[in-house]
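Dear V.,

Thank you for sending over the compound details. I've combined the ligand you provided, zinc ion, with the protein sequence from our construct and run the structure prediction for the complex. I'm sharing the raw inputs here so there's no ambiguity about protonation or stereochemistry in the SMILES, which I know was a concern on your side last time.
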Amino acid sequence: MLILGLAAAVFFGLTPRYVEKSRNRLALGNARLEITAPVKSLHQSLLIADLHSDSLLWNRNLANKSDYGHVDIARLIEGHISLQVFSVVTKTPKDLNPHRNTDETDNITLLAIAQRWPIRTWFSLFERAIYQAEKLHRVENAVPNKFQIIKTKYDLHTYLNRRKNTPQITAGLLSLEGAHALEGKLDNLDRLFAAGFRIIGLSHFFDNELGGSAHGAKKDGITEFGRKVVKRIQELGMFVDAAHASPQLMEDIFSLSTRPVLVTHTGIQAICPLSPRNLTDKQIQQVANTGGLIGIGFWPTASCTVDITGVVRSIRYVVELVGEDHVALGSDFDGNVQVPFTAADMAQLTNSLVKAGFNQQQIGKIMGGNQIRILSNFLPNN
Ligand SMILES: [Zn+2]
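Below is the predicted structure of the protein with zinc ion bound, written out as structure tokens.
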């Protein structure tokens, strides 16, 4: 019994913390540079936004400051981040392979059980999505004076006004990483919308009922169900996220889109060919043609560096190719990756952009102005 009890304590108690600590680390060898007063004041003047973090997957209470992982409310405020997109992951294959995975295995079932998520989440991808959205709402209820979930144009407008007088607040927006969480039912999309989701990625690490993944076995284009989902996403005023889509699925998304397409977190092939999902020049141009955004990732197979230099190189490449209105940040904080700094140290990136010679207007757009503009114009009215 004692042994069983100990095993249970280790499994339910220590493991989640240990697992997260080992997954969401800081890349070694990144010096935290001193920020000069003028750069600090520039950073404080910006509206900073990030298109992707997986913080809801882990068991930390985001209302409390932690000493591990990358994001919590306190660190978003410390980093002067106005808006963080919180993505929801519901299924990932074991032994992840960047080039080929099937849907036969799943890591998240064990994680859900080990983290003592409700039983309804153990065998339902849809319930996993709903549960993680509930977690974010619980954070909002716990610290309403510090954090707000944005769902409409009105929410964003009132939040930005509120923030002018109270800069020590931050906001979040829900996104889904892989619409296998719909479990094949279009009605479930409306339920996710009601739960607060505003960005929907069609596929994640494996091909699903909607279309192919860049890391899938077949990498096909969009299915009939996928078409219906894209149509309904756009009717509801949500955004399609093309990150992780197979090249053919991406083509299909571009041809169906009537709204800006987001690639919430990605690398750039010309800078870093390490991952099959990093965007080609043509894909970057296609995203820009929809009026969309390319969120530049902070992790090593996005930028081919473990430091900030690859991030800045990728940003510069997109600016030179399609102009400064289509680039955004897509850190992948807490996404089972190593990044050069946590949310609290976002000023490190502002500092690097200043040093790289970007002007203040460009820095404002890159660091979040573009993302805030698109959300202000395209979130649902109410
Ligand atoms: Zn991802």
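A first observation: The two ends are 55 Å apart (CA to CA).

Warm regards,
I. M.
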